[in-house]
């Protein structure tokens, strides 16, 4: 890989934050945006659109039992039930307004989806990280962004932060037609279970002219299959592909949006 397209890995000081819900907005039938704020948010850093933070949710009864960060890693309060945690994408951070947006896919199970379904102003949430960022350079000619609903927060943010003259091809799979969102660039939308699907569209997509970065975020096994499609079958440079499993079949807890 040439230095021109070198990916930069950035480490951040790890901090645990206790934040409060200031707004809740239902974006689509299967996605809700929760805006968080609080004095702990000061100094928050997210250098890449596909960063992730670890969210900590209240246990039964409403207590938020967060770990402390020490030299031996996170340590939970002794004798208390640890707050469950999941990885999520920081959709928007506004330093002037001291706000952090997190978009939740509502899939009907698990601590994250259940919490987001009932979230209201005044609720509290723990936020750890990001621990680091993998910054994809903005010097590619073209970016192909491919993902399911869990990838929408990263895709939406990436399109908003992309340099204006960069070309983008966007393929997104959602649960229903009503789950389409307005993005900063045009996208091709696919509905789960319908044909032709996202995978077929990616297989048939013409390779763009110029240097192209390919970003894929779907279910873990599917991500490996699509990476193989691009690198082994279509001959895309493996250094110009990032395929990530955002969740695991029958789990939903690898990486929510």
Written overview of the protein:
This protein is an alpha/beta fold. The chain is built from 4 helices and 16 strands. The strands form 4 sheets. It has a 7-stranded antiparallel beta sheet with strand order 7-4-10-2-3-9-8. Strand 15, helix 4 (220-233) and strand 16 (241-247) form a beta-alpha-beta unit. It is globular and about 55 Å long. The mean pLDDT is 95.
Radius of gyration: 19 Å
Order of strands across the biggest sheet?
7-4-10-2-3-9-8
**Element order, helices and strands?**
EEEEEEEEEHEEEHEEHEHE
The largest sheet is: 7 strands, antiparallel
Helix residue percentage? 10-25%
Number of strands: 16
Count, helices: 4
| C-alpha geometry | globular
- Sheet-strand content, in percent, reads 35-45%
**Unreliable residue runs:** none
Find the structural class using helix and strand composition. Answer: alpha/beta
Mean pLDDT comes to 95
- Distance between the ends: 29 Å
Give the topology, please.
Blueprint: E1 8-11, E2 16-28, E3 31-37, E4 53-56, E5 68-70, E6 73-75, E7 85-88, E8 90-94, E9 99-105, H1 110-118, E10 124-128, E11 132-135, E12 142-147, H2 152-161, E13 167-174, E14 188-191, H3 198-204, E15 212-219, H4 220-233, E16 241-247
Parallel strand pairs: 12-13, 12-15, 13-14, 15-16
Antiparallel strand pairs: 1-11, 2-3, 2-10, 3-9, 4-7, 4-10, 5-6, 8-9
